[in-house]
Amino acid sequence: MALFLGIDGGGTGCRAVLAGADGPVLGRGSGGPANINTDVEGAARNIMAATNEALRGRGATPQELIAVLGLAGGTMRAATARLTELLPFARIRIVNDGLTAARGALGAEDGILAAIGTGSVFAAQRLGAIRQVGGRGFLLGDEASGAVLGRTLLAEAMRAEDGFAPMTPLLRAVLDEHGGIEGIITFGNRAKPGDFGALAPRIVASDDPAAQRIFGAAVDQVRHNLTTLQDGDNLPVVFTGGLGPHYAARLADHWPQRPALGSSTDGALAMARELGVPA
Amino acid sequence: MALFLGIDGGGTGCRAVLAGADGPVLGRGSGGPANINTDVEGAARNIMAATNEALRGRGATPQELIAVLGLAGGTMRAATARLTELLPFARIRIVNDGLTAARGALGAEDGILAAIGTGSVFAAQRLGAIRQVGGRGFLLGDEASGAVLGRTLLAEAMRAEDGFAPMTPLLRAVLDEHGGIEGIITFGNRAKPGDFGALAPRIVASDDPAAQRIFGAAVDQVRHNLTTLQDGDNLPVVFTGGLGPHYAARLADHWPQRPALGSSTDGALAMARELGVPA
């Protein structure tokens, strides 16, 4: 019996799911980071650890598997070529995790995914073809993401302290908690996207004027991105990620919404099944 | 005769200037980086190298000097306390380099400094008191700086490629030169602020619609910051830094402008002379 493997991976970890051509999941596994931008060899090791865990007790080898990997940075050609060399699967396809997330969330139906957590990514699926946009990282993209919201809040707090923007209770609180401008700069020197993103819940659920201005601008960006992806259609939109429900609530009047059907790993498995068995 | 030392330092190097209570400069020196956020001991070594170079042939020791140091990160209390311990001067004052830059540019006159190069900082001097604002670094501040302009250009190029913003000749060129979105992400992973800033000359002197939109928004931010600092006055504004002339040209109708009287090192020396000799 042919065995299919779906992998989802990124900077914090990777997950594997194993199944036959149809029927239920036969095994699951997880492993460490699979960040192919920074450590292809480490990613390969962690992906194999997750794969072997999913295979446990099956009496099958990785060499038999038909695998689709949805990875952060999965569009980077040099890194994916190297990863392909390092992995033993019978058949392999590496794509950006935005594609597998969209396939998992939407199933085979036309629709749009807005995945907004620490980062952000958008994808539209039409007739089985997925177009991913955004998701370019904390520094140059990830608009409306938790990390960008948190960074904007800190920048706005410093601008308010400098007199360039109105001071509000939330900005005052953020300044005091960090030890003023000096403390915010120190925090910013060390913070990772997740550290900035930890501030986001205080922005999206606040009636503070600065929070509402920052979140309102982010909602406008998401509306713009989704309107562009709709391209005149009225496709259902799936909001996922930690901040997804907040954007969903603010954009409830615009398009039909539906819950996610499955995860990025589910999407990778579905795409592996579509790859089919080598001749 | 009392000897006064002015130091200007930051991430790329430091400069020293030595003089008596009045009269001409007696010595100059330069040294490696003085980034007290990342390496206080290294900063102290490089500051002493610049100081000893300035002292050469004077027959004086560092222990006699009355010194003012204008340093990037000079508001960070823990780092400046440690640096003070490491330096041998008879009298020492450490301030942010924005303050010494303002004192150098404006002399003793009331006025406003807008220093806009790879980073940005603003300062207003009134009756000898200097208030510095902005200059919070590439990630959380430095609005209108070359590094932020360059980062914005790259982000906009990716948004245009994704269909979220209009494509223009400059955005197309930037995408092609970097090897598309993948190449821009790779560049962004490694680029330092100066690398982003290297794109700025193509933005501030371009009639490309995207360049004009990006630069126009930055001009609006500078106008807002300067209007805030004017606080209803009509003080002369000094624009310095690599991008200073471009902002000066765009904001020529708003306030009187004048050229910088001197450098940040000159400002540090003037502030050292004001510190006076220990009793």
How are the elements arranged and paired?
2 copies of one chain form a homodimer.
Chain A: E1 4-9, E2 14-19, E3 25-31, H1 40-55, E4 66-71, H2 77-86, E5 91-96, H3 97-106, E6 111-116, E7 120-126, E8 129-133, H4 146-161, H5 169-178, H6 180-190, H7 193-197, H8 201-204, H9 209-230, E9 237-240, H10 244-250, H11 264-275
Parallel strand pairs in A: 1-4, 4-5, 6-9
Antiparallel strand pairs in A: 1-2, 2-3, 6-7, 7-8
Helix pairs in contact in A: 1-2, 3-11, 4-5, 4-6, 4-9, 5-6
Domain ATPase BadF/BadG/BcrA/BcrD type (chains A, B): 5-243
Pfam family, one (chains A, B): BcrAD_BadFG
Protein name (chains A, B): ATPase
Descriptive account of the structure:
Two copies of one chain form a homodimer. The first copy, chain A, has 279 residues and is an alpha/beta fold. Chain A folds into two domains: 4-107 and 261-275, 2-Layer Sandwich (Nucleotidyltransferase, domain 5), CATH 3.30.420; 109-259, Nucleotidyltransferase, domain 5 (2-Layer Sandwich), CATH 3.30.420. Chain A contains eleven helices and nine strands. In chain A, a hairpin with a 3-residue loop joins strand 6 and strand 7. Chain A is globular, with a radius of gyration of 21 Å. The mean pLDDT of chain A is 91. The A-B interface holds A 37, 73, 75-77, 133-134, 136-137, 139-141, 151, 154-155, 158-159, 162-164, 181-182, 184-186, 188-189, 224-225, 228 and B 37, 73, 75-77, 133-134, 136-137, 139-141, 151, 154-155, 158-159, 162-164, 181-182, 184-186, 188-189, 224-225, 228. Chains A, B: It comes from Paracoccus marinaquae. Chains A, B: InterPro entries: ATPase_BadF, Euk-type_GlcNAc_Kinase.
